[in-house]
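Intended use. Records like the one below are meant for learning the mapping from a protein sequence to its folded structure. Do not use them to infer anything beyond what is encoded.
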Amino acid sequence: MRLITGMMCTLLSTTSVYAQTTPASDAAPVIAQADSIESTPAAPAAADITVTGSRIARQDYTASSPIVTLGVAAIENRGAVTIESALNDLPQFTPSTGQANAFPSRGGQANLNLRGLGTNRALVLISGRRAQPSNGDGTIDVNTIPRQLIQNVETITGGASATYGSDAMAGVVNFKLRDRFEGIQIDGQYNLTTRGDAAARQLGLLAGTDFAQGRGNVFVALDYTSRERVQRRDRSFFTENGTVNIAFLPTGVADLSANPPSQLAVNGVFNRYGTPPATVSRTRGFGVNNDGSLFTANPVTAPIFNYKGPIDDLIRSQNNTLLQASGLYYDIQIPLERFNGFARAEYELSDTLKAFVQGQYTAYVADVGISITPLGSLGQVTFVPATNPFIPADLKTLLNSRSNPAGDFVYNKLLFPLGPRTQREEWDLYQVVAGLSGDITSLGWTWDVSFTHGRTENQSTLRGGVSASALQQLLRDPFGGAGRPASGAVAAVSPLCEGGLNLFGDQPISQSCQSFILREAVNTTVLKQETAEANIQGTVLTLPAGPLKFAAGATYRRNRYAFTADPVVAAADLTGYGASRSGGGSTEVGEIYAELLAPLIHDTPFIKEFNLGAAYRYSNYDSIGGVSAYKADIDWAIVDEVRVRGGYSRAVRAPSVGELFAAPNSVGVTLGAPLSPTGAPAFTGDPCDVRGAYRTGPNGARVSALCVAQGVPASAIAGYTYVGNTVFATNEGNAALREESADTYSIGLVLKSPFATSVLSRLTASIDYYNISISDAIGVLGVPVALSRCFNGDGVSNPNYDPTNINCQQIDRSPGTGAIANPTQPLLNLASFKTSGIDGQIDWVLPLESVVGGNPGALRFNLIGTYVDRFLVRSLPGSPELDFIGTTGNGGIVQPQWKSVVSATYSKDMFSLGFTWRHLSSVEDSSRVTNAASIIPGVPAYDYFDMNVRIGVNENFEIRGGVTNIANKAPPQVGSAFGNTDTSTYDVLGRQAFISFRARI
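Structure written out for the chain above:
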């Protein structure tokens, strides 16, 4: 059996099928256009067709589960050169990683997050077969799917494991590609914002031919895509608000809180600057001006004293603190250069036997901009010896007054002379599929067998990091690395680098010193997947109400994962990047499945037809053993115009090869800031920070005591501040993980207009309720959650403020400073998710001739929307369920309660003009879920408006154009960190225009 998912694509050209199917979200015109340009043939009326969610083919099939189809025209009308932008507009998707660097980034990948349940809980298929993974967690980078071959994208929401196997917890996203092509087609596109940046280019060639009197076909598709870098500093939203790391400044800041100077020495130094006596606390951070004098970098409540540097977009003063907007170097459009190649050949060996082979290759490079290399950030504390020769005299005075004057001290600094760090991600992926399909004519059955082999290699080159050991060599050198000339009897000492390394003030760093401390590291990941599968389907017998159909099959799949860390990364010697170790492993699974479709009642009063479907799959994994998935659903046509559908499914997801075997690695985790944008204390950031709501609240004394018990120096607790809003945390695989399971219920109604008039005859609608519950969900116990619960943020997790609490055991603090350092995020079966809501869709095609006569064309209106009733998360067994719907979400993902897309398109002959309205309802800040007193503001409702136009010059040449975000709406503030937003959900580039063409020869 060849899995043909073409039914939905006939919506634009076959009225009878269109009326019986969930309306597509394609805003394309319904007349003339597809015949000349689209090359998307309608399914033959007599042929069996299959919709995602079932492997049983039948005629005029309406899916028993909610299905949304995005046609090729809607993808093109969106104007993006990468596919995820069009899909993320659909209300069923929660925007995830894509073209923006929402730190930490996934290296330019584009992953899909269905229902907000995670990028690894939606199964991505290419023409019904598993795509090649791009990550050890099994997620698919949809950048690797050849865009010009896509006919449509079908999405079934809800569990589909019984049909397709593991990973289909939230549903299936099936990219239906062409399987034949004849002729030559050339495509091109160019995108540009109205600011003149963010350029993106795409050029594609598709060529194919029939042979052997049409029994065979072969085609090749080539596609090249590139897009330019845009950083946060290129948009006023970020330059006006910034994304800050407190007190990480180019001048450097000495943190003496663990071994503070005497108050007398502090008074003496600052009195010389004209500062009033006893106004500068000895536990503050002391910055260094270029002239060697000191300033108060983070005085919390007092003004900033004696700062002599600039106040601008990069360095500003807010809430009595100097802030460095290092996040301005993050990308809001990651530069990408991608090449896709695809080839397919098929041949009818006989009237009942067909063979095919196809290959796909993708290579792309993404250079991800991060920020200036920090010293002392993310748990990587930099200690400077008191003997360093470059220490300025005033700072030396403070050091000498300490109880331990010879002790090292902590120094925080941004190394601006080195420039921003970048992470170059190079991907090479291929997948080869070969198979046979045929008919058993005596039984009327069809069958297919296939074998798939794929390989992914990722080389991640880390640039701009500093060797901690080389840095310490210079800092501890008696001459700071500068050496000394011979003088009399004193022998010369050769320099380690020209001029040595002077970190005090915003001093230049010579090229030889940069070379001495800079390191470039390359980490390599290799993934392999082999799949062998066999399927058969047909009619078992004929019941009074129709044929009893079945499908059955078996699958074997093996996944292998290997990660090789660069030696400098494995040694944790690369400042500014996390440490990782090499590791790997493999998994194998054998599966069998069976599916039945039974017509029970036909042509009786109130039952035009009533069908019952059922499926069962047994999977035997070498990692977790045997598991079962199953489903049952109904399809009840009350009359031709009214159809009820619904069902229940049990889905399972086995832990991926990466979740099982990933070696320990460090990842960046955002904690947020202790102050809201208004300067009020917030329940985010390090709870020990004296400015935050934990310390200023009614339990501030108990919080302080817990902080000291964890490792914050008692001498520093009174004025302790955490000078960043991110940390490095350690993740690793867990071979003891069990499978996840999901229960999905759905019930829906599909309506076709009962009116025969031309005005209303092409009006259809659907409404579906879904309810998904996932248990034993695999995930990390994240640092922000552990911190909140350790400090009893929810009021129940640690009421005694006990340092031995399980949440507190995740948190380590650096000796001497008390800063959060190297916390762990264990990977466990610990969470549960429950989400439910309603999907609705309306499609109406209005031939204008029925209104005004003549041949004026047609109008098409489409509305697709989702109302999410709840999104409950239980992050630990026994902990309370928290509802994150209508908030900035669990993990910072924006989860509005209402999402909708409305489009209107006018078309006549080979011309169309369309407008789209995208709506997101307002959300509260997620901190209010656990702390009702939180005053961090939410985000108001957001609306975007787009337009597109198509002009068919002739039957073989078409041009398209459009504008997205016509109003040039800026993104909103999300969360407590200044200048933070959700770069996946909200448009950070602004108004964009595109123009494209398609030529057929």
